[in-house]
Amino acid sequence: MKHSTKRDAICEVLGAKRDHPTADMVYERVREKYPEISLATVYRNLAQLCAEGKIVKIGATGRERYDIDTSNHTHFFCDECGDVYDVFCPLTLNGYKNAENEVGGEITSASITFHGICRQCLAAKK
Amino acid sequence: MKHSTKRDAICEVLGAKRDHPTADMVYERVREKYPEISLATVYRNLAQLCAEGKIVKIGATGRERYDIDTSNHTHFFCDECGDVYDVFCPLTLNGYKNAENEVGGEITSASITFHGICRQCLAAKK
DNA sequence: GCAAAAGCAATAATCGTTATCGTTATTGAT
DNA sequence: ATCAATAACGATAACGATTATTGCTTTTGC
Question: Which of A34, A88, B11, B99 is deepest in the core (most CB within 10 A)?
């Protein structure tokens, strides 16, 4: 992979505000610096960075979101505003081995996601 | 909600082979009995049944899958063949409360999904 | 500097899903 | 049984997110 100014800008955007932006959001933010960038370039580079393991795609149905933090952590989706927050506190899943026995195959990963209402939306509701 | 022959057929298909079919798969299977059914009708009824809580949509990025079993259980996605299997063995998640404290909001649900290689694909690899 | 390879913008195309619209089936009251 | 209200229907257009294509432009190793 060659060096690219646009890809740098995309990484910079992902690092600056870690709110797990969508491709569109990344596009809008990069455009502030490079107004000529194309949405296709954003998609292409996001896919490329994912393939390289430099960023991670968060499985959000309908609209994908991207996270530059590839360390092991969980995500909390606010069902009210749609924002995504990180959860770094340690979580343990018991019964994992039984699950593997039940399916008979090999479980390579277990993903946990939280849904609910975030602090701000909770406060706004009162 | 009025009674409908097509909706019955869709439920029947979902009940017959519980392999968590996609809308397309449901469409193909219902067509064996009702060749004139439209894909739109399938989507419409699947959405309706979901809204009624009669079936459940499995969050599979890109292509949704449907499950007539609304009881609490987990899903295992085979990354090789794409099939989805049920996991009924009990799982417990520790650290849940800490997560809620960390985000400050209210966690209403936690979803767990497994990924890996199913029994068949594992056997085929040897 | 120069040529090869990767990157780029613009845009067309694709995919899964949803909305629209004119017609048909189901229902509950007569 | 009839009839009007309304939900459901099929066909298809539209939609939003993403991917592929194409012809041109940077970047890089030499």
Answer: B99
CATH of the domain at A60: 1.10.10.10
Let me know the angle formed at the C-alpha of A90 by A85 and A95, rounded to the nearest 5 degrees. 110
Choosing from A47, A67, A87, the residue where a domain stops is: A67
Strand C and A47 CB separated by under 7 Å: no
Between A87, A101, A110, which is nearest B114 by CB?
A: A110
Instruction: Encode pLDDT of B51-81 as tens digits.
Output: 999 999 997 777 899 999 999 999 999 998 9
Strand C reaches within 7 A of the B24 CB: yes
Show the DSSP H helices in A1-125 as ranges: 5-16, 23-31, 39-51, 96-103, 119-125
Q: How far is the CA of B33 from the C1' of D9 (A)?
A: 16
C26 C1' to B85 CA distance, Å: 37
Q: Which of A19, A83, A12, A82 is nearest to A49 (CA)?
A: A12
> Is there a single domain that holds both residue A26 and residue A63?
yes
Instruction: Please tell me whether residues B63 and B78 are part of one structural domain.
Output: no
| Cα B15 to Cα B51: distance, rounded to the nearest angstrom | 18
Tokens of B40: 């739109």
Strand C nucleotides, any atom under 7 Å to a protein CB: 5-12, 15-20, 25-27
Range(s) of the domain holding residue A27: 5-67
- pTM of this prediction? 0.91
| HSE, side-chain direction, 13 A CA sphere, residue A50 | 15
Check if B111 contacts A (Cβ < 8 Å).
Answer: yes
Distance of C1' in C2 from CA in A37, Å: 27
Task: Assess whether A119 (CB) lies less than 7 A from strand C.
Answer: no
